[in-house]
Amino acid sequence: MGNYVNPPDRTKEQWLQENALQVVAVDFKYTENKGVIGLCLVDNGWMTACAVCDSESEHEMWRNLNDGRPKRLFLAPIEKVSEVMGDWWVNEYAATYTKRE
User: Fold this and answer.
1) Pick from 23, 50, 72, 94: CA 20 to 30 A from residue 14's CA?
2) Residue 96 near residue 52 (C-beta atoms within 8 A)
3) Chain centroid to CA 43
4) Strand ranges inside 1-101, DSSP E
5) Is 16 exposed, middle or buried (0-12, 13-18, 19+ CB in 10 A)?
6) What is the pLDDT of residue 50?
7) Whole-structure pTM value
8) Distance between CA atoms of 68 and 79, rounded to whole angstroms?
9) What is the dihedral of CA 56, 58, 64, 65, to 10 degrees?
10) Span between the terminal Cα atoms of the chain, in Å
11) What integer pLDDT is reported at residue 1 of this predicted model?
């Protein structure tokens, strides 16, 4: 099912506007070890979801814009994503994206 950004104090859309850069699909590349992470805001009709692309397979799945749901792709600093994801995610995933090459 994956991991999702759910800011406690604002909407996902507001959080993305303040903390992420919207990109086109061609620029939405897997960014392990670069200090940024891909996010996908998907409109499911009755709600939006902001998926965290914290693996190569999640990244490729969300990059597919042809599944019938409106999607917007973003890149965000791992530090900002970590602030809203909580300690469990930071311990499990964030280290992969912040280690130096």
Assistant:
1) 94
2) no
3) 14
4) 3-4, 21-23, 36-43, 48-53, 71-77
5) buried
6) 95
7) 0.84
8) 31
9) -130
10) 29
11) 57
